[in-house]
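Box 3.1 A note on notation
Throughout this textbook, protein chains are presented in two layers. The first layer is the amino acid sequence; the second is a token string describing backbone geometry. Keep the layers aligned when reading.
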Amino acid sequence: MTTPASHGRARALVDAVAHPAPSGWAVGRDSKIGVCQSALFDLLEPRRPDPAKVAWIRGTPLHTVRQRDGERLSDLQDLRDRTTMALQRRFGVDAGQATRVRRTAQSLYAQLAPLAAHEQQRELGWSADLHEIGLAVSHHGHHHHSAYLLEHVDAAGFSRAQQRRVTQLVLGQRGGLRKSRDLCSDRAGAVQLLALRLAVLLCQPRIDPPQGLQVALVTRPKARTLTLRWPASWAVELQQTVHLLDKEAVNWAGLADVEVSTGALK
């Protein structure tokens, strides 16, 4: 709604544009522009834009806009969580298994990176939530199918960089590490991937996983040392799990700068 004052400014706008300054007056171009801008703002009475609408128009992830505004979003309000749950439903994900892998991965990640940024923790969680969507295509090599789907799906709320990160983690959840060399070259990516791979391994029977695995990845100037330690009782009670952990250690030892130490806790 306009007011008498804004009508006056609008009239000033017309006068400033339509009528030159009287002879002898030193009215510069910048002064006339200032009058025009002031009159336009009063006439239109612009309000502060809604961050959500700005995000939608510009294609910027909503969480980024709100973080810039100093707003803290709860997990339940985050569009990315809703997108993740929608993708689980769309591809028929076993929610129980996804939850087991998520909890296990986050527990191991807390050992590996206790001071990790909140967004890195959440990336790991989303990767666990979606690591099996490729089963909707085929059980054989499903991690490749999962990564392909994630790379091309419309993932509302995720930035392209974050969607790519989750895709890389899902691709690297099992198998050799050659396909994940770029991710493993970065410490943050390496510990995320290690936590996810170990969680998938421990949860492979699709029941609550065994507790007690201790893991560390220590970075030194010229090498990284991966340490895996498990309860001595696993050698008898969980022989298959120990076998898989030994194989996982071999995978990581295949990276040029990683030294591996494994064995039972004493």
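Residues 233 and 239 are 9 Å apart (CA to CA). Strands lie at 214-219, 224-230, 258-264.
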